[in-house]
Design the sequence.
């Protein structure tokens, strides 16, 4: 006598049975053992699949962690490079890129035989042109005194803009001077030119304007060593001067009485 367990035939030993009840119990125990062995196989398969899924997910998380670590290291290196660069590096970089593009554009225009400025103006929109014109109008052309050379150049430009050409006088001088109108190293015309009354009046008018303009300039006040010291610092001295300028005539008598010691 035998039974099939896990697909194998197993022969069982024979024992004498006393009655039918013991035979039934033996057959039930054999059937239960066979059913337990058959059910264990799908349970183990499901557990192994679950374990493999968990391992696969763990490997994916491990790869993502390594990738994030590499990206983080790259960002740290880039940030350290930017920190070591100058403060205005971005502006300089943009400026250099723009100059490189401009140089390349000029070369292309020169190779095609085109005018670079004309090509550049064709790419400017009407809105940009209006915005640039408004910005130019807002700028103050008078930047103040920066140096004697700059001031002299600005005055020269201002005077030349005021000059209006007198073509009649030009032709008259040309006829009078003849060949000496365009002098050469051998020409002797020094002292022969006589200015007109209109030119002299224009010069006098311009000089009077310059004198009036200089009179409005602010200058540093000279320090008077003999003046009374009635202040504790420079700011207090300025305040006392302003107070004296506005209220000096009303407080003069009180101040004199305090200095004499006759104040009530």
Sequence:
């Amino acid at each position: 006598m035998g039974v099939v367990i896990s697909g194998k035939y197993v022969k069982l030993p024979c024992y004498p049975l006393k009655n039918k009840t013991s035979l039934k119990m033996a057959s039930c125990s054999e059937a239960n053992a066979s059913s337990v062995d058959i059910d264990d196989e799908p349970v183990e398969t499901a557990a192994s699949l679950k374990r493999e899924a968990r391992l696969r997910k763990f490997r994916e998380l491990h790869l993502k962690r390594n990738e994030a670590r590499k990206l983080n290291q790259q960002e740290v290196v880039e940030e350290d490079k930017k920190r070591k660069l100058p403060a205005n590096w971005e502006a300089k970089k943009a400026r250099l890129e723009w100059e490189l593009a401009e140089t390349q554009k000029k070369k292309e225009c020169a190779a095609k035989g085109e005018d670079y400025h004309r090509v550049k103006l064709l790419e400017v929109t009407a809105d940009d042109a209006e915005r640039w014109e408004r910005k130019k109008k807002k700028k103050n052309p008078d930047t103040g005194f920066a140096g004697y050379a700059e001031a002299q150049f600005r005055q020269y430009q201002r005077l030349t803009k005021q000059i209006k050409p007198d073509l009649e006088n030009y032709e008259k001088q040309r006829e009078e001077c003849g060949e000496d109108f365009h002098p050469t190293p051998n020409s002797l015309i020094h002292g022969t030119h006589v200015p007109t009354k209109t030119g002299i009046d224009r010069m006098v008018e311009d000089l009077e304007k310059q004198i009036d303009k200089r009179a409005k300039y602010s200058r540093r006040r000279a320090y008077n060593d003999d003046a009374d010291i009635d202040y504790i610092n420079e700011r207090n001295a300025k305040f006392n001067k302003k107070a004296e300028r506005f209220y000096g005539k009303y407080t003069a008598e009180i101040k004199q009485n305090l200095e004499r010691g006759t104040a009530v």
In short: The two ends are 146 Å apart (CA to CA). Residues 91-135 form one domain.
